[in-house]
Amino acid sequence: MSRPDHHVHRARLYKLASMAFDRPTDDLREAIRSAEFDEQLVESAAALDDGELLERAETVADQSPDDADEIEDCYSTYAALFGFEQGGEIQQYEVEYGSGSLVTNTDTLADIAGFYGAFDLDLEDGNRERVDHLCIELEFVSHLALQTAYLEETGDETGVEIVSNAQADFLEDHLGRWVPRFRETVRDDADDPFYRALADLVVALVEADADRFGIEPDVFPEVPPSPTEGLTGGGDGDFRCGTCGSNGSQTSAPSPGNAEMPMGDRDGPY
Q: Which ranges are annotated Polar residues under compositional bias (predicted)?
């Protein structure tokens, strides 16, 4: 077994990335204003002893908003790039980067939902976000990393194996397949150094975990026609709504009969 704190730092990085790629909340703005976001990002990257990951984290910290006006403009910057309310064109959904339409990707969505359900996770009440949103997938891996830390701390080798296999499978079948394409889109379409650096960090984090778990995700090819065409007739339909993500505060092992843990809790950095 590896050190439990190692997985806590992995969990924190996934959580912070999820927060930063979501619609900016007051918690996120305050964390950036106080430098807590930057400090925790760099601290956790350094703890994982990965030179590239640390370099990416330091770049995100360097590029994060650092004055009052920029911090207050976080929401409008996000909306212009990703939000439907200002016509943002950068998609944050897995199936947008795969082949086929949204209709033909129902199996993919069902598989993602199956991962969440296996750990008694669900979207919080009132959250109409799709399960393949970037923030949800990042927070799911954060949740599993925290569970790994707990199970290692308690010496539950069987539990560690189960949760580690789940992380490997999810990264290989889902997150690891599309975040490189997402990064390319951000690089091409986002004239914002913070989000470009953040996309680089996410890819570095996923690639580090791919090496850790001995997997090789089959990255989606160049972006195909938008899968929303199956529902919109080729228009610019969008399905964003509400917040997303998993609650990273739970560290106990999954077991049958646990109450559902709603995803979408925004408690800020650990």
A: 244-255
Q: How far is CA 86 from CA 95, 103, 139, in A?
A: 22, 25, 25
Helical segments of 94-221, H only:
106-118, 134-153, 157-170, 176-189, 193-213
- How many whole angstroms from its chain centre is CA 197? 15
Q: How far apart are CA 207 and CA 5, in angstroms?
A: 20
User: Does 258 map to a domain?
Assistant: no
| Structural domain total, the chain | 1
Distances (CA, A) of 251 to 14, 43, 54, 134, 246: 15, 21, 25, 22, 12
Coil vs helix vs strand at 160: helix
Question: Would you say the C-alpha torsion 47, 51, 56, 58 has a positive or negative sign?
Answer: positive
pLDDT in tens, 215-251: 999 999 975 545 444 444 444 333 233 333 444 333 3
In which domain, by residue range, is 17 found? 4-250
CATH number at residue 147: 1.10.3480.10
Q: How many C-beta atoms lie closer than 10 Å to residue 72's C-beta?
A: 13
Residues ≥6 apart with Cβ < 8 Å to 114: none
Residues in CB range of 256: below 8 A, 6 or more apart: none
In a domain, 170, yes or no: yes
- Tell me which amino acid residue 200 is: D
pTM of the entire predicted model: 0.82
